[in-house]
Specification:
With 283 residues, the chain is of the alpha/beta class. It is built from eight helices and 13 strands. The strands form three sheets. Strands 7-6-5-8-9-10-11 form a seven-stranded mixed sheet. The chain has a four-stranded antiparallel sheet with strand order 2-3-1-4, covered by helices on one side. Strands 12-13 form a two-stranded antiparallel ribbon. Strand 2 and strand 3 form a beta hairpin.
Length: 283
């Protein structure tokens, strides 16, 4: 007797009546039990979004075949994967290790449904951290003269390691429009500010000098428009004039790490779905 397996189904399609009924009707026909359901119809883009978790003894081919007529009729973009799936992830870093450390720890503790198959660094500072966790480290230096070769190496690693997700964990280089387009919806960046932000170097020092009362971080999908991709998660902390800049940096790094981890988790779980220039996140 085949045991039930848990699946995650997420979809988007033009909004109209009967979408939920059509999908759940198919699941009833294959003797599935729905364990979680969230939906949203965007009044701005007139797109409907649905995320379901369900259990069934039917295999993937049977599920997809049963759903195919509905997918065609309603022009759906649909993703289906086992709830237990762990996304193959490549993490890119420079010299700051707080975000990488959090991702590695949460992966090992089981709270992040990802497998970090490699760490790419344009410096070697974080190679010991990757080695400690048993993750291969790839040094890919970037200069104006080697940028094209570095990106070619990145795409080579994505292909050879069968990478599903790339995470920029304070990677201080800008990806080219070519890479952004090829990896659309598959690259997540952490921005060291609650956007809109202080741009350029030393953002917490700029914030401190301006006497801000809130600092924060933003995780977003990467696009060719620098730091303007669809936002997945944000968080903030209150600060005061009495705190030294070192406190700003420490609090900021803690927020960056937690915001990035949540964004990666929601993406890997199929909870973050693109809606034009923004996201729908079923938390």
């Amino acid at each position: 007797m085949t045991s039930d397996q848990e699946w995650v189904l997420s979809l988007s399609c033009p909004d109209r009546g009967g979408i939920v009924h059509a999908v759940t009707g198919v699941l009833v026909d294959i003797d599935a039990t729905i364990t979680e359901s969230q939906q949203f119809g965007s009044p701005d883009t007139e797109v409907f979004f649905l995320r379901l978790q369900f259990r069934t003894a039917a295999g993937e081919d049977v599920i997809r075949e049963a759903l195919a007529p509905v997918v065609r009729r309603l022009s759906m973009d649909l993703e289906l994967h086992p709830a237990s799936r762990r996304q193959r992830t490549l993490v890119m870093v420079s010299t700051a290790g707080h975000c990488l450390n959090t991702l590695l720890f949460q992966q090992e503790s089981g709270s992040l449904p990802i497998d970090i198959v490699g760490v790419v660094g344009n410096h070697t500072d974080l190679a010991p951290m990757a080695d400690f966790h048993g993750v291969p480290f790839h040094h890919v230096p970037v200069t104006p003269d080697t940028k094209d070769a570095a990106e070619a190496r990145l795409l080579e690693l994505v292909d050879s390691l069968d990478v599903e997700l790339v995470v920029l964990a304070r990677y201080m280089q800008i990806l080219s429009p070519t890479v952004c387009e090829r990896m659309r919806g598959r690259v997540i960046n952490i921005h060291h500010s609650f956007l809109p932000s202080f741009k350029g170097a030393r953002p917490y020092h700029q914030a401190h000098a301006r006497g801000v009362k809130i600092i924060g971080a933003t995780a977003h999908y990467v696009t060719s428009d620098l730091d303007e991709g669809p936002i997945i998660e944000q968080d903030v902390a209150r600060v005061t004039h009495a705190q030294p800049v070192a406190d700003f940096v420490q609090q900021g790094q803690e927020i960056e790490a937690s915001v990035l981890a949540r964004a990666v988790r929601w993406h890997a779980q199929g909870r973050a779905i693109l809606d034009g220039g923004r996201t729908v996140v079923f938390r």
